[in-house]
Amino acid sequence: MKRTLCGLMLLIAIGCSKSSPTAPTATEPPTQPGPAVLNLQWNVIAASCAPVTMPPSQPAFSAATIVRQSDTSVTAAWPVQSNGRAQTLYARFVFENNTWGLCSWDIADV
Amino acid sequence: MTRAFILSIALSITAHAAGLTFTAPAGWKTVPTSSSMRVAQYALPRAAGDAQDAELVVYYFGGQGGSLDANIERWVGQMQQPGGRPPGAVKRDSRTINGLKVTLVDLSGTYVAEMSPGSGQLNNNPGFRMRAGYIETAMGPYFIKLVGPSKTISAHDKQFETFLSSVKFAK
Asked: Is residue A23 part of a domain?
């Protein structure tokens, strides 16, 4: 009786492991990590975010601290000065239509 | 029980953003945000005799935003003291709220931060008070900044505490 039960449990376990793969299944939404190379531009506005105004300054991207976000967007940050005050400009870019576009920005000192 | 549940929905607004959730107390008005880095923004009705409402903004800069010390230094710089004298030692209120480390400061003075991002125009509001918070999460810091006339802020002190206690983070 015990042996039969153990055999039955083993069969169920094998069946379960076959129907529950650890790898992502086709039903999961595809992820779009965006291109590995970031080609950020100030003069491109992401269509889904429009209208977006330009920040008061558009610093060079080479001077930015860039962080990729879990939603595939990127956030770039620059130290800036206004009226002698140290501030930080943050800009968010999203990848749409094969290009990176500005989605929003803010300045930490308000 | 059901009536109480419906009432609580009617009286409060729960905001969700990038893992952080919180509930705005009844009476706080939701204000449209000007950027996606402002997770939520509320107007807190002014107290009798005050000229303007207070404003509370929850910020998230994609995991950036600087250190706790840098932010406290920035907040202190936004509250000028009478005669331009340097601010005294800033008292930090460190708490754990729903598993999150939260550090708060409470500052008074003349509010001189920029009026709007990048405008170059500064506020000049004497008799203001700021309650600002730095919330540490697995996705980086979130920031809470409540600013307004002292009397108005005091009138909302209890609601601000209720708001803080509602802050939660889910990965």
From this structure: no
